[in-house]
Every structure is written in structure tokens, then in C-alpha cells.
Specification:
This protein is mainly alpha-helical and about 200 residues long. About 65% of the residues lie in helices and about 5% in strands. The chain contains 5 helices and 2 strands. A two-stranded antiparallel sheet has the order 1-2. A hairpin with a 3-residue loop joins strand 1 and strand 2. The longest helix has about 40 residues. The two termini are about 20 Å apart. The mean pLDDT is about 95.
Length: about 200
């Protein structure tokens, strides 16, 4: 399979990034929901929080790579038979998904950077990811409003993504089983894509 996208399908780079980000994002949402329900004094909460931050920063890095790859590597066109409204919805949903996969971890990193506790982010225990300097250098008393604001953004974006993921999956299944236009197959390795756009 080619690394670059073709007219018929996504290449191996886009597919790998898509599925890896999807798995990490879903895993991190599950971790976030689980640790949010743990009491503050639960010893597992701190460990889970560190994993949550590490996974989130990984999603951020992979999402920026994916966005860069998409900008230099055009995606396969939408099927010809799609109505203008369906095309608009498809483009809008992809824009929103790209936005959230970058904005959720970015807001999390900014939230941690504005924390008055001052805990670093050890990326899976291997090295410390630096905080955003313009936030970490603020006096402790000034950090709190920023921390609260980024936390609110982070939580709302996470809940929005919890709603968006099933819609994205349903849209892919709609293309596969009702429209039968190979849109889903274009993102699955090893599938035969025969319907040109």
C-alpha cells in the first residue's frame, strides 16, 4: 500500500494516524471519565492523571502531524453522487473533528501549565514535557482564572467529542451499508476499493 493518498483511497500514513489517534482519543476519554469519578485521595488518581496527560500530549503531536500530512497530501474526493448538503456536512464534520483532536489536548496542556500546584508532565515517565512558559511563569495568584478557563474548555470539548465520535462512526456505516460507496473502505487497510469518487 502506498504511503500517500490516491484518488481511490487514503495512504498508509493517513490510515495509521487516523486509527492511532482514534484509539488513543477514545482510550483517553475513558480514562478521563473514570478518573473524574475517583475520590481525590485515591492513589490511582494521580497515576491515571499522569497517563491521561501523556496520552493527550501524544494525541496532540500525532494530530498536528496528521494535519500537516493532510495539507500536503490531498485526500480522496467525496463520491460524485453526494448532495451539496451531504458534502457540506462531511466537510464540516471533518473540520470539527480536526479542531477537537487538537484543541482538547492543547487545552489540557494549557490547563496543566496554569496549575498552581506546579506538577510537571512526565511523558510516560521518560522525560518532562515543559509547561507553556507564558502561563507557568505567572505568579501563583494569577494562574487560577486561567486554569479554570482552560479546564472548562477541556471538559466541554471532551463532552462534545463524546457526541461526535458516534456520529462519525454512524456516518461511516451509512456510507458503507446504505450508500455502498466505499468511503469507509478507503480508510481500512487491506480492503478492495473499486468505486472511484
Amino acid at each position: 500500500m502506498a504511503a500517500r493518498n490516491t484518488v481511490l483511497r487514503y495512504g498508509s500514513v493517513a490510515m495509521t494516524l487516523h486509527w492511532l489517534i482514534a484509539l488513543l482519543l477514545i482510550a483517553n476519554i475513558c480514562v478521563g471519565l473514570y478518573m473524574g469519578d475517583l475520590p481525590r485521595d485515591d492513589p490511582n488518581k494521580f497515576v491515571l492523571f499522569q497517563y491521561h496527560k501523556s496520552i493527550g500530549l501524544t494525541v496532540l503531536l500525532l494530530s498536528l502531524i496528521r494535519l500537516g500530512w493532510r495539507l500536503i497530501n490531498p485526500v480522496p474526493p467525496l463520491p460524485r453522487g453526494m448532495s451539496p448538503m451531504m458534502r457540506f456536512l462531511a466537510h464540516t464534520s471533518h473540520f470539527v473533528l480536526y479542531f477537537v483532536i487538537i484543541a482538547i489536548p492543547l487545552s489540557g496542556w494549557l490547563m496543566v501549565s496554569a496549575s498552581s500546584i506546579g506538577l510537571g508532565t512526565p511523558w510516560f515517565g521518560l522525560f518532562n514535557v515543559p509547561d507553556a512558559p507564558f502561563l507557568s511563569s505567572l505568579p501563583r495568584a494569577l494562574k487560577h482564572p486561567y486554569h479554570e478557563a482552560f479546564e472548562t474548555v477541556h471538559v466541554y470539548l471532551a463532552w462534545a467529542t463524546i457526541a461526535l465520535i458516534p456520529l462519525h462512526i454512524l456516518a461511516a456505516l451509512y456510507h458503507q451499508f446504505l450508500r455502498r460507496d466505499d468511503v469507509l473502505k478507503r480508510m481500512i487497510p487491506g480492503t478492495d476499493v473499486s468505486n472511484p469518487a
